[in-house]
Specification:
Belongs to the UPF0162 family. By secondary structure, this protein is an alpha+beta fold. It is built from 12 helices and 6 strands.
Length: 274
């Protein structure tokens, strides 16, 4: 039933995806015994509060960011989990709503849910190694670090973040390409990729594969996900399944060098079946 609902999300245009509701479906798959109804009730309460925010806040992005932080951080106590950052609970929306703690992407789902209800132009930014939010208002665009209670990020903050994930010896300019708006599907994929990556790193290939397969339900045309699924199947020795996944890649990929390489991978996998 839950996976059928994700299949339905996969047929929707991006603008019609209910971000928090879809993340809640994914959380239910991950923790089937958790109290998802309480999480759903909490999301509804946040939505009601956000209607009031919309009526009492201005049209400047900084005003809207302050209103969101006052509600989510000061009133409800949401904050980044510095102590147990890599705990998978920080990526499960049910657990995030219960603990009021999360990774940047886990908290970001909550912030995006609230901003959308308020009617504000808020979106994910696929910044390397640290998910942030963009918020557009009459005063232009600002970037928010929701892991740090919604702090407004300045260019030097972004450069410092790039330096920390690079060689750490020189600061890089944050190119405009690094602050591009993400789609809702891309936000959900980043959420699940965090789960898949951590499971794979711990040796749980089956769990990593489940996360990828669930992503493919709501993003069935994502070539990278089919390639990722093929790679995990291959690691698990499931070559026939890897071939099937590469078949989807060949169907979806446009003509060119990438298609030629995909066909070559598919041939090598098929030859290993004989």
């Amino acid at each position: 039933m839950i996976r059928a609902a994700l299949d339905a999300v996969g047929q929707l245009p991006d603008s019609e995806i209910a971000l928090a509701d879809t993340a809640l479906l994914l959380a239910r798959l991950d923790q089937p015994d958790a109290d998802w109804r309480r999480a759903q009730k909490h999301l509804s309460q946040l939505a009601r509060d956000c209607i009031h925010l919309r009526d009492t806040s201005g049209s400047w992005a900084e005003e809207q960011a302050q209103a969101l932080a006052a509600m989510l951080v000061s009133r409800y106590g949401y904050s980044g989990d510095y102590e147990t950052y890599d705990d998978l609970q920080n990526l499960n929306l049910i657990a995030v709503t219960e603990r009021r703690r999360g990774m940047p992407i886990g908290l970001g789902i909550i912030w995006l849910h609230c901003a959308e209800v308020a009617g504000w132009d808020c979106y994910g930014i696929n910044f390397p190694s640290h998910f942030v939010l963009g918020l557009d208002g009459d005063d232009g665009q600002i970037l928010l670090d929701i892991f740090a209670d919604g702090r407004v990020l300045e260019p030097e903050d972004l450069e410092g973040m790039l330096a920390r994930i690079g060689d750490g010896r020189r600061r890089q300019k944050a190119a405009p390409a690094l602050t591009v708006r993400m789609t809702k599907r891309e936000v959900l994929i980043r959420l699940q990729q965090n789960i898949s990556y951590r499971r794979e790193q711990s040796g749980d290939l089956a769990g990593a594969l489940r996360a990828v397969e669930d992503m493919l339900r709501f993003a069935p045309s994502d070539i990278n996900l089919w390639q990722q699924a093929a790679g995990i199947h291959q690691q698990m020795g499931q070559i026939a399944a890897a071939v099937r996944c590469m078949g989807h890649v060949v169907e979806l990929i446009p003509p060119g060098a990438d298609l030629t390489r995909a066909r070559a991978v598919m041939r090598r996998l098929r030859s290993s079946l004989n």
